[in-house]
Amino acid sequence: MAELSDGVAIRTITFSLLSSPGLFFTFLTIHYIYRSYLFPYLQPSMSPAHIGVAIFALSFQITNGIAIGGWLGSYGPTTSSNWAKHDLSVYLGTAIWALGLGLNVWHDDILRSIRRRRGVVEKGSGEKVYEIPTGGLFEYVFFPHYFTEWVEWAGWWIVGGVACPPARIFLVNEIATMLPRALQGKRWYVSRFGEKKCEGKKAVVPGLI
Questions:
Q1: CA–CA gap between residue 31 and residue 41 (Å, rounded)
Q2: Cα–Cα distance between 167 and 163 in angstroms, integer?
Q3: What pLDDT shows up at residue 20?
Q4: Domain limits at 107?
Q5: What angle do CA 62, 45, 60 make, to 5 degrees?
Q6: Which SS3 state, helix, strand or coil, does residue 146 take?
Q7: Do residues 144 and 136 make contact, with C-beta atoms less than 8 angstroms apart?
Q8: 186: closest CA among 164, 166, 205, 165?
Q9: How many domains does the chain have?
């Protein structure tokens, strides 16, 4: 009989898309269906990306996939009874994940609306037009779509359990990668529009950063 590293037989694991490990896997998949397929399709325009960025992203996702697969298949909870101990965190994490995803999509759409308006103006004048986004959390920060994505991944981590290293490391990497971009982006807004128009707005976390 095939066994896992801790001696638990593979046949004892119950896996469906509505089980706790299934939700952990499904939430990750839903995010990347949106980010990889729907997001580019919905965008009015996109800036070109350097090949090095694409290679780094691919390498990270391969490593991340292996880590998540190892956690689900062996190193994390391996039976329905083990996952049942995390029922409360699964419910809480699911709510936080859904909130983060919904807010992330909403703020992405606000940015898409700006790109559409800008595209019309650029065609008419031949000049690039920039504006400070408004609406939703854009009233408080310049990059709420970053913050809401962190909320989404925090919920996903909670679904997997606070002791889930792949989810925890994923969230830390997201913040470490996106926070410097948000801080740099805020400096760009201030330099372009001035301190007065940017007054009171944080970079990414309302009231904090």
A1: 15
A2: 9
A3: 74
A4: 12-198
A5: 10
A6: helix
A7: yes
A8: 205
A9: 1
Residue 204 lies in a domain: no
Least confident of 40-44, 118-122, 188-192, 193-197: 118-122
- Whether 208 maps to a domain, the answer reads no
**pLDDT digit string (tens) for 51-83?**
877 788 788 888 888 888 888 777 877 677 777
End-to-end CA distance of the chain: 53
Longest dimension (CA), the chain: 71
Residues 153, 170: contact at Cβ < 8 Å?
A: yes
Alpha-carbon distance values, 199 to 141, 177, 180, 189, 203 (Å):
10, 25, 20, 11, 11
What contacts 189, CB < 8 A, 6 or more positions away? Answer: 132, 142, 198, 201
Q: Is residue 70 assigned to a domain?
A: yes
